[in-house]
Specification:
- This is DUF1922 domain-containing protein.
- By secondary structure, the protein is an alpha+beta fold.
- The chain has one domain.
- The chain is 29% helix and 21% strand.
- β1 and β2 form a beta hairpin.
- The protein is globular.
Length: 63
């Protein structure tokens, strides 16, 4: 039940370009393909410059 409340809020924060942990604005980097972005709080995201979308990085992308 808690996931039903948290997941939409996290999706909204990512759509706004903000970190789901601390709420700070994530930097927009340029490049080809997915670009790795690390927040000040340590969370790692993947940024797609073509679609200007963020998503949480998978364990394989973190390594």
């Amino acid at each position: 039940m808690l996931k039903n409340i948290i997941a939409p809020v996290q999706a909204w924060l990512l759509a706004q370009g903000k970190c789901v942990g601390c709420g700070k604005v994530l930097e927009k980097r340029s490049g080809k393909g997915l670009v790795r972005v690390t927040c000040a709080c340590g969370r790692i995201y993947m940024f797609d410059p073509a679609g200007t979308k963020y998503r949480r990085a998978t364990f394989d992308e973190v390594r």
